[in-house]
Amino acid sequence: MNISRIIIPIGVVAFVAGAWHQYQWQGVAVATGAVVMWVLLHFTRMVTVLSRAANRPVGHVGSAVMLNAKLKKGVNLMHVIAMTKSLGERLSEENTQPEVFKWTDTGESFVICTFKGGKLSAWDMTRPEPLDADTSPQAN
Predict the structure, then answer these.
(1) Both 94 and 120 in a single domain?
(2) Is the pTM of this model over 0.90?
(3) Which of the residues 17, 23, 83, 122 could staple to 114 if both were Cys, CB 3.0 to 4.6 A apart?
(4) For residue range 89-126, what is the model confidence (pLDDT) as tens digits?
(5) Number of neighbours of residue 84 by Cβ within 10 angstroms
(6) Residue 103 in 3-state DSSP?
(7) Which residues contact 94 (CB under 8 A, 6 or more apart)?
């Protein structure tokens, strides 16, 4: 279970209660306004990230090598979508844990990311096999 699902609502209630204790209704109005602004900032970020991702092909990333270098354990799916500017190609069944997504670049290198509870738990980058000098086409 994600502890932030418990701590954030308790923190909001404590913030509004503290504002009531200190400033009565004026404090509640300011605290509620601050909480609404915080929620709107997160909502705006989510909409911005998803609108940028909507304009790109699903599962495409500019460079799989750079994505592999930037990934860190524990980041959420929205952060990875913001980095890639693309929705990942789903490899797992819908509504099952863990969720597995794949991002591929133009050189056919790809990164497969595994998310447990919405947080990145593992990832693996795969590069295509290089062509041998004997089998590669010769340019004239």
Answers:
(1) yes
(2) no
(3) 122
(4) 999 999 888 999 999 999 889 999 999 988 999 999 99
(5) 26
(6) strand
(7) none
